[in-house]
Amino acid sequence: MRSRIKGRYAFLCLTLFGLGACSPPTQPEIVRKDCSHWEPQKPPINSSQLVENLGWVSDHADILSVEAELEIARKLEQLETSTRHQVVVATVESLHQVTIEDYARSLGIFWGVGRVDENDGVVLLVAPNERKVRIAVGCGLETTLTNQKANDIIQSDILPLFKIGNYEKGISVGVSQIAHIFENE
C-alpha cells in the first residue's frame, strides 16, 4: 500500500511540477573567490622557515609582554566573534631573506587564517630585526581593508610608536584600527 502511495505521489509531482520539483533541495554551491593574485609570486617558502602558530598572537620575536599578548588576543577574539573575520598577529626574529609580503601571505595560507570560502583572513606581521611591518589582507576583504588603508594604519598608527620602541602599543593600536574598519563596514 505504501509503495503505491509513493508511486502516485511521484507521478503526480512529475506531472504537475516537472522533473526537478520533487527532488530534494540541493546544497548551494560554494563560490570561491579568485585569489590567485594573493598567492606568493616568488618560489614557495619552505614551511620550516615559517613560525609556529601559537594562537591569536604568535610573538616569536619576544617583543610583547604576557599582559600585552593577552590584551591583543582578547581584542582579536572579540573581533572575530563580532565580524567573523579572523585577524592574527605574528612577530618573527627573521624573514629568512624572504620579502615581508611573501612571508605574511605564506603565513596566512600555511596557518589557514580566515574562512576558506570567504578568504577573509588578515595577518599583522612584525619583523623588528629587519624593521619591517606588513598587514596582509585576504582577497575577500580587499575592498574593506584596502592596501591603502592597511598602509595608512602602518604609517600613521604603528610606525610612530615603533620608532620610540613601543612595540606593544603599536601593535595594539594597529589591531584596534583594523577592528574599527571591520566593525564599520
Summarize the structure.
The protein has helices spanning 2-17, 66-83, 100-111, 147-163, 167-183, and strands spanning 57-59, 86-91, 121-127, 132-137.
3D architecture notes:
This protein is an alpha/beta fold and 185 residues long. The protein has five helices and four strands; from the N terminus they run αβαβαββαα. It has helices spanning 2-17, 66-83, 100-111, 147-163, 167-183; strands at 57-59, 86-91, 121-127, 132-137. β3 (121-127) and β4 form a beta hairpin. α2 packs parallel to α5 and α4 runs antiparallel to α5 (167-183). The radius of gyration is 23 Å and the shape is globular.
Output the CATH topology.
Diaminopimelate Epimerase, Chain A, domain 1
Query: What is the average of the pLDDT values?
Result: 82
Morphology = globular
Query: First CA to last CA: what distance?
Result: 58 Å
CATH architecture type: Roll
Listing every helix as H and every strand as E from the N terminus to the C terminus, the arrangement reads HEHEHEEHH
In the residues, how many domains can be counted? 1
How many helices? The count is 5
Fraction of residues in H or I helices: 40-55%
Under CATH at level 1, the class stands as Alpha Beta
Task: Give the strand order of the largest sheet, numbering strands 1, 2, ... along the chain.
Answer: 1-2-3-4
List low-pLDDT spans: 1-32
Work out the strand percent: 5-15%
Number of strands: 4
Q: Which structural class matches the secondary elements?
A: alpha/beta
Radius of gyration: 23 Å
Biggest β-sheet, characterized?
4 strands, mixed
